[in-house]
């Protein structure tokens, strides 16, 4: 697979790659299956934690290598003619459910410190943890990919671009037990210190369902900063949230210039949610004074049918979310008692039903939010 060398440990699993040579592709409709034998953790080496996380995401110390793992690659192609890569994640989920997991689970596919990556025309199934994780990468295209996991499988995010730039995710279908797509950039003081943002990211023509999490999300790990993200032409159903921005005190960083357009949702509990206070930190050295800066969130052309709650927009006291702009947002089928809930946010709305909260009803004409807040500039200071 690809123009990076992929080597296997212990027969098939896991693959790892470093350098630049060789290429290979799965046959038409090929199925690649991780061992169905009981997990032998010795076959899954422990590797160093990512520097922007400081430790494994689930447990202190290192983390298990991913099934397919690449580092320092250039011109990588991972593709197949409707082939399938099955991570056989159930055994890993059971370690999590039984609280016997000693190190953070590996991903199904992780590529880091790499450039010019194409992942296409494949089905990824049953990831132990996050499914596709490009981290510290640039020029990434993920297209025509299907991702499947049981809807109760823990932390089986679909695609998580992390501290990466120039990423395009398009024409993908995802069913998972966590966010379908979540943009990330490091965790608390470790992400702040590394200061490697995610930027220039496009997600389009995405469809799927996740009963516990969001269709598209920002964070909660966003300490290196996230900017210039466009998500459009989305179809989300039977999910906990449609669009979600997750932050917390201690995260620092910024979320700036996020455009979300043309979304259809059915039976999504909370169609739009900005949340705070995840109370999820790597260790006790996080800085409660490190608050994120959120400005310039543009949401337009949204139709949501039969949601349980109106939007929940919760900023952080002392660090309100500013420049939240919504236009042509229609939420149908809500109970009459369902009202917008807004704290520590400000912005504009235009053609929004039902009527939004007072903080989002500025008496200044939005002019599509003052022409996208006038050439918004990133200021992470």
UniProtKB/TrEMBL annotation:
Q: Which InterPro entries match?
A: GH28_Enzymes (IPR051801), Glyco_hydro_28 (IPR000743), PbH1 (IPR006626), Pectin_lyas_fold (IPR012334), Pectin_lyase_fold/virulence (IPR011050)
Does Transcription regulation show up as a keyword for this record?
no
- Write the record's keywords in alphabetical order, separated by commas: Glycosidase, Hydrolase
Q: Annotated Gene Ontology MF terms?
A: polygalacturonase activity
A single BP term in Gene Ontology: carbohydrate metabolic process
Q: Which family does it belong to?
A: Belongs to the glycosyl hydrolase 28 family.
This chain belongs to which protein, by name? Putative polygalacturonase
- Which species does the entry assign this protein to? Vitis vinifera (Grape)
> Top-down, what is the taxonomic lineage of the species of origin?
Eukaryota, Viridiplantae, Streptophyta, Embryophyta, Tracheophyta
Coding gene?
GSVIVT00026920001_19
């Amino acid at each position: 697979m690809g123009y990076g060398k992929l080597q296997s440990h212990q027969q098939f699993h896991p693959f790892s790659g470093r350098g630049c040579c060789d290429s290979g592709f799965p046959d038409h409709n090929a199925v690649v299956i991780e061992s169905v034998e009981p997990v032998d953790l010795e076959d899954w080496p422990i590797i160093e934690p990512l520097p922007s996380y400081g430790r494994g995401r689930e447990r202190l110390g290192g983390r298990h290598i991913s099934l397919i793992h690449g580092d320092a690659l250039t011109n990588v192609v991972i593709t197949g003619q409707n082939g399938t890569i099955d991570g056989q994640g159930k055994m890993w989920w059971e370690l999590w459910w039984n609280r016997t997991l000693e190190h953070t689970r590996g991903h199904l596919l992780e590529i880091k410190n790499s450039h010019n990556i194409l992942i296409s025309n494949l089905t990824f199934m049953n990831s132990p943890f996050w499914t596709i994780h490009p981290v510290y990468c640039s020029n990434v295209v993920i297209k025509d990919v299907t991702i499947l996991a049981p809807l109760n499988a823990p932390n089986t995010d679909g695609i998580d671009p992390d501290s990466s730039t120039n990423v395009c995710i398009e024409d993908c279908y995802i069913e998972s037990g966590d966010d379908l797509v979540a943009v990330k950039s490091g965790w608390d003081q470790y992400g702040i210190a590394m200061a490697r943002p995610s930027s220039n990211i496009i997600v389009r023509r995405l469809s799927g369902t996740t009963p516990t999490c969001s269709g598209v999300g920002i964070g909660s790990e966003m300490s290196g900063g996230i900017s210039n993200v466009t998500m459009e032409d989305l179809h989300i159903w039977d999910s906990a949230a449609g669009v979600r921005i997750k932050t917390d005190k201690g995260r620092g960083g910024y979320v700036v210039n996020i455009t979300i357009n043309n979304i259809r949702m059915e039976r999504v509990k909370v169609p739009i949610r900005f949340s705070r206070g995840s109370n999820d930190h790597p260790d006790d050295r996080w800085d409660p004074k490190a608050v994120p800066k959120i400005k310039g969130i543009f949401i337009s052309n949204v139709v949501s049918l039969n949601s349980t709650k109106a939007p929940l927009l919760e900023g952080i006291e002392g660090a309100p979310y500013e420049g939240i702009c919504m236009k042509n947002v229609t939420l149908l089928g809500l109970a009459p008692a369902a009202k917008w809930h807004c704290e520590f946010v400000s912005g504009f709305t235009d053609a929004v039903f039902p009527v939004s909260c007072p903080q989002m009803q500025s008496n200044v004409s939005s002019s599509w939010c003052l022409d996208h807040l006038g050439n918004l500039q990133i200021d992470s200071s």
